Amino acid sequence: MVLGGIRCGSSGRSTPETRPSTFRLCPQVRADTVPGLVRKDSELRNLGGSVMGRSLTYGDGAREVGLHIGFDVIESLEDLDFLTSAPVNVNGRNVRILTPSLPRGRLLAASWVEDLKPPCDRLTVIASNTGRSELLDIVRAVEVDQ
Length: 146
Known about the structure:
The protein is mainly beta. The protein is built from one helix and 13 strands. The strands form three sheets. Strands 3, 5, 6, 7, 8, 9, 10, 11 and 12 form a nine-stranded mixed sheet that branches. Strands 1-2 form a two-stranded antiparallel ribbon. A two-stranded antiparallel ribbon has the order 4-13. Strand 11 and strand 12 (122-128) form a beta hairpin. The longest helix is centred in the last third of the chain and has 10 residues, at 132-141.
């Protein structure tokens, strides 16, 4: 007999589910060589399945850049509709450039897949107050530890 989620029987105890004792971290990622940009913040993101992604924020007072590994942050910006370009080759990466369908203060994004174990293979850069050529320079500067 089951009462309130507790099995009554010979032992009277339920067996708790076990979970992995460690998380798998997505590789370190950085864009430290972009002139003028300084790293402002860094955080781990729980991607589920005992995997932690990474988010880094860079800025210089006028520009702000978010670099994300392990998830496509565009999905979380559900109030913006993005238009996607055909893939552009940037240092061997097939990068999609995304622009909001309505102008949003020079907001641009780039998204691509690296040769890493999913979900850590997804990278996204979101940049405000940058142009397309600056966004591509940021993508070129992204380094991933493998």
